[in-house]
Amino acid sequence: MTDNLFMDFTSLIAYQKAFQLAMEIFEISKGFPKEEKFSLTDQIRRSSRSVCVNIGEGYRKRRYVAHFVSKLSDADMENAETLIWISFANRCGYISDEKTEDLLQKVGEVGKLIGYMISHPEKFGSAHSH
Question: Which domains, from first to last, does the chain contain?
Answer without folding.
Answer: 4-123 (1.20.1440.60)
